[in-house]
Specification:
mainly beta; 4-stranded antiparallel β-sheet; about 5% helix; 10 strands; about 140 residues; 3-stranded antiparallel β-sheet; Coagulation Factor XIII, Chain A, domain 1
Length: about 140
């Protein structure tokens, strides 16, 4: 056992012994080291000042899709009218034909927004003409 102002460390064995006299069996038992905070570390942690920071975004994030005809947010879209897609790292760039904004149907099929129907193309906002979708289709932007 090791005891310091910062931490206390002690060994522990896990596993089931077949009897009170059964020897240690590495196939059934494991030795672990357990740590507990010491007095100085508990005191220091109590005095830590915190501040909230934003999570690091590593990819595209869509936070909302607004139907600009009806004002509905994350709900129904009106084909043939504009929708605003809000989020992070949304700008559509590149010449690869697979790059773009898609409305993915509940069936798994995707309807791509033609790049000529992208009215605003910013990193935090896209405004696009909603393509024709099957009647009653459920879709999400991707």
């Amino acid at each position: 056992m090791v005891n310091t102002e910062l931490f206390n460390a002690f060994p522990s064995i896990s596993g089931v012994f077949d009897s009170p006299d059964a020897p240690f069996d590495p196939g059934k038992h494991k030795v672990h080291i357990k740590l507990q905070t010491g007095v100085a570390l508990r005191t220091a942690v109590a005095e830590v000042k915190t501040r909230r920071v934003a999570a690091v975004v590593t990819g595209t994030v869509i936070t909302a899709v607004t139907d600009l005809k009806t004002g509905a947010i994350n709900a129904t879209l009106t084909p043939g009218h504009d929708a605003k897609v809000s989020g992070v790292k949304l700008r559509i760039t590149g010449s690869d034909p697979t790059v773009g904004l898609y409305f993915v149907l509940a069936t798994g099929d995707a309807v791509k927004v033609d790049i000529s129907d992208v009215v605003v193309n910013n990193s935090s906002e896209l405004i696009v003409l909603v393509p024709a979708l099957p009647a009653g289709a459920t879709a999400y932007a991707s």
